[in-house]
């Protein structure tokens, strides 16, 4: 069954994310509860799950982003596409993506977009079979603006470096600029591990 996540699904979704790129389930905290509440209360944030025999085995996120161009039509961003390792190859993730497409069409989106860091031909084939087309070659599309943003983030990071709580601020600044930070414990040892854009896949909608 494909459906949108419910408030009580949090723990099962976090367990599923261990099959994405997470290495541990986050500890229960006020921040975790706050973020989950934000997701559940955001009408534009759709966390889609596939449930099989009472178990959540696949999921993706579809966020509808308001937009002032293309006839004031929004677009959709898809992220966190994952299937439990024991349930792969059965079409569950594809079903989640189709559900996301229906949501996007219902909201009159003019396109859907997702990013993947995978270089696997199988991954690209999976998304292409789901209707997405690769439009970017990351190493060939590092624009001047990307370089400026990257250098700006480094400059701000240096200013935050010695400030109290600078580590938390550094995480926020770089999240805004869509850079990925290494997991060094000491803020002085943090490195930018992957600032180049990931492969972008598009699906045009009627």
- The total strand number stands at 7
Give the helix tally.
6
* Major sheet characteristics: 7 strands, mixed
Which class best fits the helix and strand makeup?
alpha+beta
Helix content: 25-40%
Sheet with most strands: strand arrangement: 1-2-3-4-5-7-6
Rounded to an integer, what's the Rg over CA atoms?
18 Å
Q: Kindly report the average pLDDT value.
A: 78
Secondary-structure element string: EHHEEEHEHEHHE
Could you name the ranges where pLDDT drops below 50 across 5 or more consecutive residues? 136-142, 167-197
Brief descriptors of the model:
single chain, 206 residues, alpha+beta, 7-stranded mixed beta sheet, 22% strand
Would you write up a description of this structure?
Helix content is 34%, strand content 22%. Strand 4, helix 3 and strand 5 form a beta-alpha-beta unit. With 206 residues, the protein is an alpha+beta fold. It has six helices and seven strands; from the N terminus they run E-H-H-E-E-E-H-E-H-E-H-H-E. The protein has a seven-stranded mixed β-sheet, sandwiched between helices.
Secondary structure layout:
Elements: E1 2-4, H1 10-16, H2 30-41, E2 45-52, E3 55-65, E4 75-83, H3 92-106, E5 111-116, H4 121-129, E6 133-134, H5 144-160, H6 166-176, E7 199-204
Parallel strand pairs: 4-5
Antiparallel strand pairs: 1-2, 2-3, 3-4, 5-7, 6-7
């Amino acid at each position: 069954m494909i459906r949108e996540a419910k408030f009580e699904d949090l723990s099962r979704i976090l367990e599923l994310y261990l099959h994405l790129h997470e290495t541990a389930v986050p500890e229960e905290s006020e921040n975790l509860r706050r973020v989950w509440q934000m997701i559940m209360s955001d009408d534009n944030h759709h966390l889609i799950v596939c449930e099989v025999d009472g178990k959540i085995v696949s999921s993706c996120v579809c966020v509808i982003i308001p937009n002032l161009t293309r006839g004031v039509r929004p677009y959709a961003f898809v992220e966190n596409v994952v299937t439990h390792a024991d349930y792969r190859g059965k079409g569950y993730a594809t079903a989640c993506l189709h559900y996301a497409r229906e949501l996007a069409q219902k909201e009159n989106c003019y396109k859907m977009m997702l990013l993947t860091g995978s270089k696997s031909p199988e991954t690209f084939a999976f998304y292409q079979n789901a209707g997405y087309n690769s439009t970017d070659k990351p190493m060939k599309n590092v624009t001047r603006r990307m370089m400026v943003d990257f250098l700006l983030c480094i400059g701000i990071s240096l200013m935050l470096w010695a400030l109290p709580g600078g580590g938390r601020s550094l995480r926020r600044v770089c999240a805004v600029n869509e850079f990925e930070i290494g997991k060094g414990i000491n803020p002085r040892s943090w490195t930018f591990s992957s600032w180049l854009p990931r492969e972008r896949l598009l699906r045009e909608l009627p």
